[in-house]
Amino acid sequence: MTWSWSHTDEAYSNAYANVQALDSLTLQAVYAEWRATKFDESGRAELDSGQYDEWLQAARSIPDDMLANEIWQMASERATCDNGGFNAWICPEGCHTVSFDRG
Question: N or C: which end of the chain has fewer CB within 10 A?
Answer without folding.
Answer: N
